[in-house]
Amino acid sequence: MDVVNQLVAQGQFTIIKQPLGFIKLLQWIFAIFAFSTCGSYSGMFKMSVECTNRSESDLGIEVEFEYPFRLHQVYFDAPTCKGGNPERLFLVGDYSSSAEFFVTIGVFSFLYSMAALSVYCFILEKYRENNKGPQIDFVVTAVFAFMWLVSSCAWAKGLSDVKTATDPERVVTLITACDERENRCREVYDPKVSGLNTSVAFGFINLILWIGNLWFVFKETGWMAAFSGTYMPSQEKQPAPDSFAQGGGYGQQDPYAGSQGGYQPEYGQQGGYNEDGGYSQGYEQQPTSYSNQM
Q1: Omega of the bond prior to 68 within 30 degrees of 0, cis?
Q2: d(CA 176, CA 87)
Q3: Strands 42-50 and 272-273
Q4: Taking the model in full, what pTM does it have?
């Protein structure tokens, strides 16, 4: 606990209140939502096959499927309505590539956001040293923004295919007994895919967050100053004007004295109060005192 308290005491958690840290925190949270809603999904739908011979009917055929949506490995048994053993049928399609790609991007985004937040809070000075940290952060953020775009679009298309492949009305057509008009086949229960729809929404929210974060990370890189022309690494810093050597030094005459009418005492001149109370200015062309004028 002492180590934890020391880290907390030294942490600069005020960065979370700034856009750079706050958006990174949102990225961390929404990445969890994205990969968890997709990776933890499991669904089920029901169908019924009512044969002419009621004893062969099956009114509760359950089909379960889950992530990573390798539907071609999901099977169920349906009656043939002709006696004998039921037939085993498989769903159509393998959509694991888009689903796993989406979840992988979500997991890596979660890990990178957590690592970046730790850097912001505890070694922010090291992060900003020589702008190397912000530049690396900007490149990685741009890569993740692009990956979220690709993975979200791919998973949205994959989800559409999953919905089609798990539609009970479509799956019923795979059953041989349903080709005969005497038998009655229908769907009983549709799969709930609201969680998968949410995962796609979280994917595009992450895309917006990572694209928006590019601007705030870009401002930390120092590239904006170079683009605007305020940063000129090729020019040396101009020295401050040498005021002491160019007229402002102590070796020069006081600018407020003499020509500018300032007061400059001259201790070599005769002046002051005389015995009669008069004041002597010390100038040769004027009387030394009022008593002499009298």
Answers
A1: yes
A2: 9
A3: unpaired
A4: 0.70
Tokens linked to 19: 């856009």
Please measure the distance between the N-terminal and C-terminal CA atoms of the chain and give it in whole angstroms: 97
Identify whether the C-beta of residue 58 lies closer than 8 Å to the C-beta of residue 185: no
168, 46 contact by CB (below 8 A): yes
Name residues whose C-beta falls within 8 Å of residue 99's C-beta, 6 or more positions apart in sequence. 38, 67, 68, 69, 155, 158
Contact, 168 vs 45, CB < 8 A?
yes
- 49 neighbors 61 (Cβ within 8 angstroms): yes
- Main-chain dihedrals φ then ψ at residue 235, nearest 5 degrees: -100, 140
If DSSP codes are grouped into helix, strand and coil, which group holds residue 287? coil
Integer CA distances (angstroms), 88 to 77, 93, 176, 288, in order: 4, 16, 11, 134
pLDDT single digits (tens) 72-103: 999 999 988 887 788 899 999 999 999 999 99
